[in-house]
Batch of 2 targets.
Target 1
Amino acid sequence: MKLTKEDILNIDKYLIKKGIKYIDIRYELIDHLVTEYQSMEHYPDLESFLRKRTAWCRVIAEKRANSIHWGYQKSLLKRVLSFFKTPPFYGVLLVWLSILISIKAEYGSVLMNNSMFWVFIGVVLFQYVDMIFWGIRSKKESKMLSISTLINIYSLPNIFMYVVGILESIFQTHPNCATLYFTIALIVNIAALIEVQTKRKRGLKEYEFLKSSMV
Amino acid sequence: MANSKLYKGSLNTIILKLLEEQGKMYGYEITQKVKDLTKGELNITEGALYPALHKLEAEGLLDVEVAKVDNRLRKYYKLTEAGEKETVNRLAELEEFIRSMQQLVNPNWSIK
């Protein structure tokens, strides 16, 4: 028995009612449920069929969030590594180091590390502004799991900020450690910013496609 | 039905192998294909299949393609380049595992 557009719409509504709000999970579940139902020899009542499958639908939605989280952490590391495979990155790094050496020669290592710290804070603040701005502006984010959890990408790079206080005494006695620390922190945080923007752009495009293609 | 615990550790390899053979597949199709191939011995549950597919996708071993089928969308999974290489490795590992198990349970029989 082929399900009608209305039946499929009802399945979608049922899933939303059961707490599966993300469109990027629902469309896959809908296809599975419809295909399974249509291939049955004896067709049960649609609602009782759905009731029996609610539990695993929820499990899939929960586990999907977990796999996305780890997928994002992995993609951030890949992004960082990709920098080192790009020749222009070494040019930027060279310019950056030249500026640092000039500041150090002119004003000393304390001012050099302070400048680095504020550049780093600037990048982190930009991330926060980005999160707040998108949180307010776009309601689409809350409908796509893959976009709504994007800010998780910032969690690992933000650790660099939280650890600064703990490492302060080491940085004072070993200024070179601070230089290295802030350089790595900047690279990771900039990589996170790029990763979030790229994934968001792709996610919003996917959302528009899913929204227009679903019943 | 066979003891599903014995298959649990091999689920990802089963998925990768099927996709290597079939090119692209969707979730329900995978469950049915496994059921057919094992003559109903192995029944992959949805609660195990989809998380495994999503994990492989997040690891970059699978790529997805969305197509409109009848009045709904269908998500097809296919191997990425990294997925193809991983499939070869995992199949070799599985074969080695089967060989070792065979040695343990029936030393006089060999799969060559």
Target 2
Amino acid sequence: MRSNLKKKIINSNEFRSLVKKKSLVSWVLSAITLLTYFSFILLVAFFPEILGIKISKNSVITIGIPIGVSIIILAFISTGIYVLIANKEFDQKEKKILKKIK
Amino acid sequence: MINYPAITMFLIFVFATLVITFWASKKTKSRSHFYAAGGKVTSMQNGLAIAGDYMSAASFLGISGLVYLSGYDGLIYSIGFLVGWPIILFLLAERLRNLGDYTFADAAAHRLDQTKIRCLAALGSLITVALYLIAQMVGAGKLIQLLFGLPYELAVIIVGVLMIMYVSFGGMLATTWVQIIKAVLLLSGATFMTIAVMWNVDFNFEILFQKAINVHPKNFKIMQPGGLVSDPVSAISLGIALMFGTAGLPHILMRFFTVKNAKDARKSVFFATGFIGYFYILTFIIGFGAIMLISTNPKFLNTEGGLLGGNNMAAIHLASAIGGDMFLGFISAVAFATILAVVSGLTLAGASAVSHDLYASVIKKGVVEEKDELLVSRLSAVTLGCIAIFLGIIFEKQNVAFMVGLAFAVAASANFPILFLSMYWKRLTSQGALIGGGAGLFIATILVILGPAVWVDIFGNEKAIFPYKYPALFSVTTAFIFTWFFSKIDKSKKSQKEINKFDNQLLRSQIGMK
């Protein structure tokens, strides 16, 4: 009985579209994170002098510093975006599926 | 020289945590309490505790020391340590929470052969924990010797005995609260230091960097990448180790089982990433503050012009420079508390791998009395603690710098691939996971031994057989290829059954339906 029910949910459109949406969001955000990080790392390895360019003539601050700090902030923001989407979208769909069973 | 304010503040911390441990021990009556604090930790508390687990003394003192030594390079390290977190959130946290109860092996072995996968996961966990623990113990002994004026052996024994008490009496509940208190103390201390540094330069970054450039021997070079990662292979390899290593640390993964459900697991990573990111930005400013305020002050320098106690003492000396003996005492006590909290988390993860994965699941095949399993986990915590004290004392004079790197490499090459593939790749079979994870573990270990960190720095050979310091690029790739290949050629009936179970596992991992 239980296994039949499980099969039914697994094959249902609601469940499939939820899985699809979830993995789309997860992979897109992961790809952005990985891409940002590895571009930065490759910049460090191949062109460190680019990160040493000053942000303006009268400044001693190099662009590497705002870039580095932005990556940290971006990492935090991306987790926030994920939580927002998941709380709003995924949890409701999940509830719907679980409600249907009952 | 004995540092009284530091010892007083540390004693207050120890007293408070022992009271909590006593309270926690009254509540810790079941497996679920011991391993997962009854699943009743809130997402905010767990976020702080994860941050507490992750912000070790090594990252506080080590990264601010690295900034002090070479400026910008410290930031590169911090970024690498942080970006693993979004990945954990997007790909692992929720599924892990839905599939497992106490250890990450619960999730990895969900549809696979319990005996094989649990053994592999337990081995990976124990190796990671042991390496990390030894590195922390040795660091702790030396730091405490320096800060508090206590003998090395005594310092290691104090740390060991306290962590055994927290873990064996108070389980996850006590460990979590020790982490939370420590995280709050560390974040407040670092915030105060940062404000003091910025107050010195009228809250103007231009002046801070200018002053640092003026006094630093490398001058303007501290504002750009230096020699930390010079060739692309090392750069990518380090990146992979930090990213996927974080996602394979057993004491970190275990924290996801302390919250109620997948939603709270998700929120805890959000909070944790915020705290950790904030902390790394502070460390960067603290490092530059140290260059500006202490690198020219003879009070903190030895006769050769280096920092007393080494570069890792930059943050500690800065505390003394800006806040006198009282604040120095506070930061020293926080550093001690930090070590204690991290080793407790590690010991708990190691003990759980022994009692839950090896004893309950492999030896007893899942048929076990709750009180027996609890007893085994407590005994394992005591045993692990004693081994850690013993190894900590033996390794006093050894160079343990490679150990944390190796711990990350093993976590990235053995724990992460099997956990990740068990959730994401339907065709994964027990045979593939066992051979692939085993290969990752083996290759990571061999390459670290043949690499510069052990072959040259410890064995004293002239040239390393394996030229790169970070093996993760090679060992993680090996693990994935072997897992893929040996899963593909596995046509047995048993494996077909494992593959067929994937859909049900997916259902549970997605919406938590059992």
